[in-house]
Amino acid sequence: DVKVTQSSRYLVKRTGEKVFLECVQDMDHENMFWYRQDPGLGLRLIYFSYDVKMKEKGDIPEGYSVSREKKERFSLILESASTNQTSMYLCASRNGGYNSPLHFGNGTRLTVT
Amino acid sequence: GESVGLHLPTLSVQEGDNSIINCAYSNSASDYFIWYKQESGKGPQFIIDIRSNMDKRQGQRVTVLLNKTVKHLSLQIAATQPGDSAVYFCAEMDSSYKLIFGSGTRLLVRP
Predict the structure, then answer these.
(1) Which residue ranges in chain A fall short of pLDDT 70?
(2) Please, are residues B107 and B84 in contact by the beta-carbon 8 Å criterion?
(3) CA–CA separation, B92 vs B28, rounded Å?
């Protein structure tokens, strides 16, 4: 089974802090994704990466950046955390085929105070 | 814009009955669809997928039906069990190969 591991289940950060969310997958998947999930809004794509060193903006990239230095690891960075970034963050991976499902981690619930 | 929606936000069924969760999609060009299950405190879990060249696909206790004429997708769960209680999402692959998710339907299984 595919395993996508997010380093933290819960995080509490202060406004203005720089926040790093880490994600590792163990299936040698080429594609990796970061979503946020909010009640009533579903899953919204923040950033994705089709390969090492590559990144693409999703639908809501403002306030975020990403890093993919190794194939198995995809990091989401909140440059200066704000209260409207309080959310559940979900990392996912997929093999290179477009018509293949995403496999998700269990999420990081981030609270910005 | 392209969107995926769900008809019922909450579905309550008796244990042992069959469940049907519905989803409407808006983009007739979408050619790949997925159903996910999300339990409380966990990430979405892949259940089953279907490509647009099919109208039915079966898994273990689950069946996905695709009606391209009316742009409708459904997930059928046979003999629903307490462990099936969760939020279910449909998703479609848009023309830029990104997945677009619906907001979810909560399935409650009554003992």
Answers:
(1) 1-2, 96
(2) yes
(3) 10
Using a CB-CB distance cutoff of 8 angstroms, which residues of chain B are in contact with residue A45?
A: 98-99
Sort out which chain A residues have CB atoms less than 8 A from B89's CB and list them: 42-43
Nearest to B100 by CA among B27, B9, B18, B15: B27
Q: Which long-range contacts (CB under 8 A, 24 or more apart) does B44-48 make?
A: B44/A43, B44/A90, B44/A102, B44/A104, B44/B89, B45/A104, B46/A101, B46/A102, B46/A103, B47/B75, B47/B88, B48/B75
User: Which residues have C-beta within 8 Å of that of residue A84, sequence separation ≥ 6?
Assistant: none
What DSSP element (H or E) covers B99? strand B99-101
Q: What are phi and psi of B84, to 5 degrees?
A: -85, -10
Residues B23-67 have pLDDT tens digits of: 998 888 899 999 999 998 899 999 999 999 999 999 999 999 999
* DSSP single-letter state for residue A1: -
Number of C-beta neighbours around residue B55 at 10 A: 12
The pLDDT tens digits of the residues spanning A26-58 come to: 999 999 999 999 887 789 999 999 999 899 999
Distance from CA of B49 to the nearest CA of A (A): 8
